[in-house]
Amino acid sequence: MHTQEIIRTHPAMKGKADEALIRCIEECYDCAQVCTSCADACLGESMVQQLTLCIRLNLDCADICAMMGTVATRRTGSNDEVLKRLLETCIAACRLSGDECERHAAQHEHCAICADSCRRCEQACQQALHSMGSWH
After folding, report:
1. What's the Rg (C-alpha) of the chain?
2. CA dihedral (116, 122, 125, 131) positive or negative
3. Using CA atoms, how far apart are residues 112 and 34, in angstroms rounded to an integer?
4. CA distance 39 to 85
5. How far apart are the C-alpha atoms of 43 and 65, rounded to whole Å?
6. Which residues contact 103 (CB under 8 A, 6 or more apart)?
7. How far apart, in whole angstroms, are the C-alpha atoms of residue 23 and residue 103?
8. Where are the alpha helices (DSSP H) in 10-136?
9. I need a surface site. Which of 62, 63, 100, 110 has the fewest CB within 10 A?
């Protein structure tokens, strides 16, 4: 990915974009795509009624991860308070979506893949949040 490369070329970079935040951005965009795809795959399953909560949590997680990636990518000025709150929200969304997908992982491979992506993103956001504590 080009995340690190593009952020380092920013002419008006403010705030800190360490390795943890860059990994978080990449994992957030990946998770957003995977959650969207899993929700769509759930809609195609014959037992779609049993997957309603999974679909909802996947779509919520996808939206939150995409927003997190977008906000964290902006480096003009800084908005650390909002960034920290979004990281906390993203951690919660990934945990909830990952937990629900794990419940269906044995029957649906797309849910197993999604649960893994959610866990990676949750961990990356936790590391970025921890890293932000050392910025000041």
Report:
1. 16
2. negative
3. 11
4. 25
5. 21
6. 54, 111
7. 27
8. 19-44, 52-73, 80-104, 109-132
9. 63
Determine the straight-line distance between the first and last CA of the chain, rounded to whole angstroms.
Answer: 28
Q: What is the pLDDT of residue 19?
A: 86
CATH topology of domain 18-132: Substrate Binding Domain Of Dnak; Chain:A; Domain 2 (1.20.1270)
CB–CB of 128/20 below 8 Å? yes
The encoded tokens of residue 123 equal 């961990």
Question: Which residues, 6 or more positions from 4, have their beta carbon under 8 angstroms from its beta carbon?
Answer: 19, 22
Residue 36 identity: T
Beta carbons of 127 and 20 less than 8 angstroms apart: yes
- DSSP state letter for 16: -
- Tally the residues of the chain: 136
CB contact at 8 A, 94 and 62 = no
Quick check: 63 and 71 in contact, CB under 8 A?
Answer: no
- Condensed to tens digits (0 to 9), the pLDDT of residues 66-101 reads 999 999 988 777 788 999 999 999 999 999 999 999
CB-CB contact of 29 with 69 (8 Å):
yes
